[in-house]
C-alpha cells in the first residue's frame, strides 16, 4: 500500500504578517497532483490542519476545496486534529465526509477504531490518535497520570488490543500528534508541555508497522517505522535550513516500510543575515538573498538611523529586524521576542521570578507552584475551547 504522510498544514497562518494563503494553495495543488501521478492509495494528515481553533474563512474554503479534490480522486484521506485545531469544529460533518472517503479522527474515544483499507496483500488498519490533552482525556482513556506519555500509552493500548483481534497479517498504521523523544524542535511549534514534561518515548508505538507523526515542523526519522513529515512550509526563521517535504511510504506485504521524500514547493527561500548595517548593505555575497524572506540581525553598537527602510531597498522581502549589538550597553536593545525564543512557559515564568527578585531564582516549591498554575491555565483554555 502506498501512503502519503503529511502534517502541520497550519492553514490560515502568516509569516511575519505576510499572508501564506497563496503558498498554502500551491502546496495543496502539489499534494493533489502527487496523489494523482504517484498512484497514492491513502493520504494521511497528522494534525494541525488549521493554525488556530477558529480559522479565517479563506483557510476554511481552502481546506474545503482540498477535500473535494481528494474525494474526487477516490483516494481515502485520514486526518487527525492537532493541538492548534479545535477538535470539535474540525470534526463537524465527519459522518457525512466518511461516505466520500474523508476520515476525520478528532474524538479520543475512537482511538481503537481503525479506518480499514485493503490492497492486493490484505487489510491495512489505520488508527487516528488526535492530539490528547492529558488533563482532558486521562479519565476517558483510563491513564494512570495526566501526562503525555501516560495518555498516549493508554491510547496505544487500545490500538494494540484492537489489532490483536484482527486477522493475522493485518498491517497497521497510526497517526499521532505529539512530541516524541529524539525529535528536533523549531521556534514555530506551540509548547505542549505538562508538568514540565512534553516528550513521549518512541517505544510507545511498538507493535504497529508505521507511525505517522505530526507536531514538529522539521521532516525527521526517529526510526524506520516512526517519522515526522514536518510542515509543508516554513513558519519561522529557525526553519531556514529545512528541506520541506512529505513522506511517500510503501508498506509491503509483510509490513516493511520503504520511504521516499517528496519535496514541497518553496514559495520563497529564507535567509538570516547578520552584521553591521553598512556591511549588510554593501556585501556582494549577500546578493543571493535579495529575493528571499530575510531576517536581519544588526550588530552595530549604536542603533542606526532608519535601518528597516535602508535595508528594505536592497532586500525588498525583509520581514524581521533584530538588534544584537556585539558589545556594550546596547545589548539591552535585543528584542524581547529574541530573548524568549526557544523557551517554554515554565522557563519564562522562572526567569521572571529571578528578574524581579534581583537574581534570586525560584526554589523547588515555587517552581512546583508555577508549574501547577501553568497547567491549570492550559486546562482552563482547553475547557473553554470545548465549551465554545
TrEMBL record:
<feature type="domain" description="Nuclease SbcCD subunit D C-terminal">
    <location>
        <begin position="267"/>
        <end position="355"/>
    </location>
</feature>
<protein>
    <recommendedName>
        <fullName>Nuclease SbcCD subunit D</fullName>
    </recommendedName>
</protein>
<dbReference type="Pfam" id="PF12320">
    <property type="entry name" value="SbcD_C"/>
</dbReference>
<feature type="domain" description="Calcineurin-like phosphoesterase">
    <location>
        <begin position="1"/>
        <end position="218"/>
    </location>
</feature>
<dbReference type="GO" id="GO:0006310">
    <property type="term" value="P:DNA recombination"/>
</dbReference>
<keyword id="KW-0378">Hydrolase</keyword>
<comment type="subunit">
    <text>Heterodimer of SbcC and SbcD.</text>
</comment>
<keyword id="KW-0269">Exonuclease</keyword>
<dbReference type="InterPro" id="IPR029052">
    <property type="entry name" value="Metallo-depent_PP-like"/>
</dbReference>
<dbReference type="InterPro" id="IPR004593">
    <property type="entry name" value="SbcD"/>
</dbReference>
<dbReference type="InterPro" id="IPR004843">
    <property type="entry name" value="Calcineurin-like_PHP"/>
</dbReference>
<dbReference type="GO" id="GO:0008408">
    <property type="term" value="F:3'-5' exonuclease activity"/>
</dbReference>
<dbReference type="InterPro" id="IPR026843">
    <property type="entry name" value="SbcD_C"/>
</dbReference>
<keyword id="KW-0255">Endonuclease</keyword>
<dbReference type="GO" id="GO:0004519">
    <property type="term" value="F:endonuclease activity"/>
</dbReference>
<keyword id="KW-0235">DNA replication</keyword>
<dbReference type="Pfam" id="PF00149">
    <property type="entry name" value="Metallophos"/>
</dbReference>
<keyword id="KW-0540">Nuclease</keyword>
<dbReference type="InterPro" id="IPR050535">
    <property type="entry name" value="DNA_Repair-Maintenance_Comp"/>
</dbReference>
<comment type="function">
    <text>SbcCD cleaves DNA hairpin structures. These structures can inhibit DNA replication and are intermediates in certain DNA recombination reactions. The complex acts as a 3'-&gt;5' double strand exonuclease that can open hairpins. It also has a 5' single-strand endonuclease activity.</text>
</comment>
<keyword id="KW-0233">DNA recombination</keyword>
<dbReference type="GO" id="GO:0006260">
    <property type="term" value="P:DNA replication"/>
</dbReference>
<dbReference type="InterPro" id="IPR041796">
    <property type="entry name" value="Mre11_N"/>
</dbReference>
<comment type="similarity">
    <text>Belongs to the SbcD family.</text>
</comment>
Amino acid at each position: 500500500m502506498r501512503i502519503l504522510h503529511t502534517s502541520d498544514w497550519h492553514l490560515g497562518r502568516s509569516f511575519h504578517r505576510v499572508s501564506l494563503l497563496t503558498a498554502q494553495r500551491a502546496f495543496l495543488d502539489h499534494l493533489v497532483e502527487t496523489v494523482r501521478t504517484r498512484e497514492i492509495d491513502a493520504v494521511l494528515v497528522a494534525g494541525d490542519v488549521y493554525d488556530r481553533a477558529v480559522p479565517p474563512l479563506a483557510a476554511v474554503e481552502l481546506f474545503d476545496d482540498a477535500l473535494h479534490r481528494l474525494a474526487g480522486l477516490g483516494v481515502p484521506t485520514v486526518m487527525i486534529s492537532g493541538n492548534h485545531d479545535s477538535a470539535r469544529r474540525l470534526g463537524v460533518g465527519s459522518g457525512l465526509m466518511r461516505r466520500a472517503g474523508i476520515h476525520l479522527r478528532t474524538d479520543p474515544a475512537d482511538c481503537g477504531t481503525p479506518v480499514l483499507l485493503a490492497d492486493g496483500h490484505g487489510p491495512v488498519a489505520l488508527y487516528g490518535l488526535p492530539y490528547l490533552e492529558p488533563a482532558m482525556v486521562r479519565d476517558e482513556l483510563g491513564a494512570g497520570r495526566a501526562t503525555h506519555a501516560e495518555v498516549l500509552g493508554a491510547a496505544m493500548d487500545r490500538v494494540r488490543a484492537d489489532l490483536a483481534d484482527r486477522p493475522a497479517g493485518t498491517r497497521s498504521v497510526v497517526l499521532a500528534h505529539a512530541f516524541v523523544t529524539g525529535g528536533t524542535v523549531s521556534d514555530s511549534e506551540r509548547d505542549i508541555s505538562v508538568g514540565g514534561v512534553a516528550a513521549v518515548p518512541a517505544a510507545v508505538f511498538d507493535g504497529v508497522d508505521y507511525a505517522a507523526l505530526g507536531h514538529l515542523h522539521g521532516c525527521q526519522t526517529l526510526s524506520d517505522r516512526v517519522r515526522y513529515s514536518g510542515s509543508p512550509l516554513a513558519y519561522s526563521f529557525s526553519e531556514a535550513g529545512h528541506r520541506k517535504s512529505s513522506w511517500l511510504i510503501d508498506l509491503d506485504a509483510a509490513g516493511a516500510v520503504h520511504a521516499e521524500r517528496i519535496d514541497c514547493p518553496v514559495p520563497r527561500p529564507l535567509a538570516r543575515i547578520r552584521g553591521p548595517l553598512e556591511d549588510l548593505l554593501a556585501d556582494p555575497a549577500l546578493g543571493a538573498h535579495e529575493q528571499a524572506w530575510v531576517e536581519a540581525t544588526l550588530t552595530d553598537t549604536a542603533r542606526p538611523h532608519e535601518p528597516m527602510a535602508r535595508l528594505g531597498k536592497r532586500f525588498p522581502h525583509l520581514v524581521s529586524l533584530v538588534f544584537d549589538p556585539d558589545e556594550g550597553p546596547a545589548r539591552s536593545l535585543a528584542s524581547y521576542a529574541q530573548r524568549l525564543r526557544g523557551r517554554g512557559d515554565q522557563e519564562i515564568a522562572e526567569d521572571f521570578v529571578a528578574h524581579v527578585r534581583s537574581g534570586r531564582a525560584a526554589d523547588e516549591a515555587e517552581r512546583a507552584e508555577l508549574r501547577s498554575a501553568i497547567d491549570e491555565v492550559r486546562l482552563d483554555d482547553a475547557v473553554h475551547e470545548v465549551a465554545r
